[in-house]
Amino acid sequence: MTEKANFISCGTYHPEPKESPIPMTFRKAFETDKQCVKATLRATAIGIFDIELNGKRVTEEYFAPGFTSYEHTLQYMEYDVTDKIAADNDLIVVVGAGWACGRFTYLSKTQITAKRQALRLSLKLEYADGASEIYSTDESWQVSMDGPYRFADFYDGETLDARIEYDKMTWQPAMIEHINIRPQIVKRTGVPVIRHEKMMPARSFVTPSGKLAYDFGQNFAGVVDLKINGHEGQTITVRHAEVLAHGELCFSSLRTAKATATYICKEGQQSYSPRLTYMGFRYIQIDGIDAADVEVAAYAIYSDIQKIAAFECSNEDLNRVQSNIEWGARSNFVEVPTDCPQRDERLGWTGDLSVFCSTACYNYDMKEFLNKWLRDVRSEQKKSGGVPFIVPKHGTNYPDVPTACWGDSCIIVPWTSYMSSGDIDVLKDNYPMMKKYLNAVKHSAALFSFGDKRYIWKLLFQFGDWCAPEGGVQDWLKRGPWVGTAFYSYDCLLMSKVATELGLGEDASEYLALKAKVDSTYMSQFTDGNGKLTDEFQTGYILPIYFRMADDETLHKMADNLERMVIDTDYHLCTGFMGTPFILFALCDMGKVDTAYKVLLQDTAPSWLYEIKRGATTFWEGWRTVPPDNIEQGLGLEESEGGESFNHYAAGSVGDFLYRRVAGLEATSAGYKTFKVVPVPGGGLTHVKTSHESPYGRIAVEWRIDADAFAIDIDVPTGTTCSLTLPDGSESVCKEGHYTHSCTL
Ligand code: BGC
User: Fold this and answer.
1) Closest CA to 467 of 579, 565, 551
2) Which ligand 1 atom lies nearest to the CA of residue 350?
3) How far is it, in rounded angstroms, from Cα 418 to Cα 328?
4) Is 589 near ligand 1, meaning CB less than 6 Å away?
5) Res 245: pLDDT
6) I want to staple 689 with a disulfide (CB 3.0 to 4.6 A). Which of 307, 361, 660, 702 is the partner?
7) Ligand 1 in contact with 276 (CB < 6 A)?
């Protein structure tokens, strides 16, 4: 911030160590008798703020100043408040505990950044006569712990007492706060978290135990919005859940998060919507009010990423898959890319983004959101090159060692963002980090190893076939060496492409040479030399096929083995986080199109459509989050595996296959300057339609099948070139314009 302002806090407030500090309210009253032509408010906080000037909120944004790696970077927000300035002014700022001080992380830590909240703000008034005045946070401000917000954090929810009025609260002078971190304070980047879809209940009902409940028909991240006819002191409690069990709200997927909004009424008509927290939910249960006295709605809230694509086809189940993908993204892009929006986690797990990033970048303009997050990844990178499993690391306790897919996000995400946005800066800004990281991978792989084994990446830690449907965590982890080594190869491949784009030919050749060594080691250590794994599992075939780790002939043999395994499991998924995004590509690109479609359209567990058939409106964390046995035996969801989320976006990575193979649209150079359209019909689909707003303009692809006639329409924007290949193999090159082509199948 340019004007000198201090951090201020409530010097007499000392929250208990394991508590989320209660929201702090700051106040500054001031008068101005001159004509103000411009008023600019800049603010940052330890915590999250909500600002009112003369009774009007200065922004619709939630959770400002956002979530960053606070030790390194703290953002300030700037708002134009000219239209809110009056002769007598009353500035009120509520600072909730947020990420900085509230209960957060799977370790249930509190006060991670500081014991209590602090505010730093300046308000600059520019007058018509050319003079100006600045009000900055200092000891002349007042602070109170008695404000209407009695409680707020991300996991447990919020309590608001609407009876409390600012003028009747006990105020004391604020004190200058010396904060223990020394972040760079920078103007906000990224995109604000704001309200999006207004969600209306699909139905209201009374649960078997007599609770008033509402079903929004969609799992999402957001807040309720209630219109209440209440009496002074009446307490209304809203609990949130993703699913029902035996007709009651089922809270098991929240783990320890209470996700409860409590509102204490004043007299008469009033409305309430939480401001200092959010929940992941589809159902709510309301206690303390009759249905006749409350109008229920909710808002989905998430970072303001713009939707830039659409996908629909003749198969309604696949259209639901697309809807689940979009809702998974909306629910989990809240300030940082999170794993889930509901339970006591909501952390920036890097691996989840690695697998979902490509699908996300097709559907949404992710550039600014990802750039902000990548700044944190850069600042959290260790000298040794490792990046945390979770960014911002913020109180989590895993070692910062390079790890396949998770740490690899520091290579995968910039590359993916570049390919969709065409902005070379994302590569320039991140190349030193990427390079250092790959070097760390090389060292980790070579640790305690000799000869070729130096290219098997198993140390220090690998997630392996994480979340595979068979077995448990130990079984997944055992697959570390295969998965780690394959991702090592992928890292090298991507880095050679990055280096080429940056004009660093020598680096590019070095990475390709390293890839060749990793690839040949994978084949010599893990296969019989003839495309068969000595210890078979599907992901162990999928990754080397997709990452092109052998010659075509060997890859085809591997694909034959993969297909055999897929048929043996009756076209069910056996893949974890890392195999799932690529299984359909691995089959389809090796000519096994029917098998790929059978897996895509399988609807018994484990499969994507099993979740759809079970009514999932967002994808689950694990393929067996609701095992079929539970349903067959009439068991409820609380008997399913404890605490698994119903809203993880990783399985939604199948979107990539829908766009790049089913519709057939794929960028061949950054920003879709050149792209190909190679539709792969199958699965009985008769109609597929997609569009994507590229940096050059809108690309559209629509194909139809009528009997054995295939027809396609494409829109090619100015400045781009499209290579079209029809299912009969005929090829053409299309420049700007609309094209219609057809062939016989
Ligand atoms: C998260 C995952 C994450 C994983 C890694 C889980 O608790 O929800 O999505 O990537 O942990 O350990």
Assistant:
1) 579
2) 10
3) 22
4) no
5) 85
6) 702
7) no
pLDDT for the residue numbered 335: 98
Active-site residues: which are they?
345, 621
> Helix and strand tally (H, E) in the chain?
16, 38
pLDDT in tens, 326-354: 999 999 999 999 999 999 999 999 999 99
State if residue 339 touches ligand 1 by the CB under 6 angstroms criterion: yes
The pTM (predicted TM-score) of the whole model is: 0.97
User: Is the minimum distance from the CB of 405 to ligand 1 under 6 angstroms?
Assistant: no
Contacts of 544 (CB under 8 A, 6+ apart): 486, 489, 519, 522, 523, 550, 555, 558
CB atoms near residue 107 (< 10 Å): 11
Tokens coding 417 = 């963002």
Nearest to 643, CA basis, from 670, 661, 625, 656: 625
Q: Which residues contact 37 (CB under 8 A, 6 or more apart)?
A: 82, 126, 127, 128
C-beta neighbour count of 237 within 10 angstroms:
15
* Residue type at position 622: G
For ligand 1, what atom is nearest to the CA of residue 351? 10
349 CA distance to ligand 1 centroid (A)?
Answer: 6
pLDDT for 2: 45
Residue-by-residue DSSP string for 331-385: HHEESEE-S-SSSS----BHHHHHHHHHHHHHHEE-HHHHHHHHHHHHHH--TTS
Instruction: Using 70 as the pLDDT threshold, list the residues of the chain that sit under it.
Output: 1-3, 629-642
Residue 727 three-state SS: coil
